[in-house]
Amino acid sequence: xxTHDIWKDMxxxxxxxxxxxxxxxxxxxxxxxxxxxxxxxxxVQLNPFDLVVLLTLSNTVQNAIIGDDNSVSxxxxxxxSLLVINYxxxxxxxxxxxxxxxxxxxxxxxxxxxxxxxDRLKKExxxxxxxxxxxxxxxxxSLQEVDKCILEPSGNLSFVGKRPDPESLRHQELxxxxxxxxxxxxxxxxxxxxxxx
Length: 197
Hints:
alpha+beta, four-stranded antiparallel beta sheet, 2 domains, 4 strands, elongated, 197 residues
């Protein structure tokens, strides 16, 4: 194969420039809408099935993005189009809070005041065992220690631990003071000279 053909295959696009720009933008918009409709869980709380879907999804849309063009130039233009459209969308949403809420969704409270909302878990397709696993990752031994859990628009789960009531705090404080006093008494008794008879 002559050197001229190698350079031609690498850099001469097989599709028109406008098509190379429009294909990634259309696929990008489709994926953003599809992932938004599939729920927040898909973004972070991936199980093996979700991971397989996302991996095959990227392979499935690859041809839609590049078409019949395997040139380096075509790939660079497609990648640049994706990066630019993502930058523009993020930049646009930054200044438009209401539109951002529509695109990204709102936070969903899954646990409040220690009460687990199973209907909300079901809506987001999160099992209680998945919720418990996420709580353990954030340092909680069980969901009984959780006061509030929020599923953020990004798909992250935020946990807030239960705070003891003021009476429990006062009791704990008194027990600590009593323990310190007992240790001080023991220390003082040990340092006193023996009593004279």
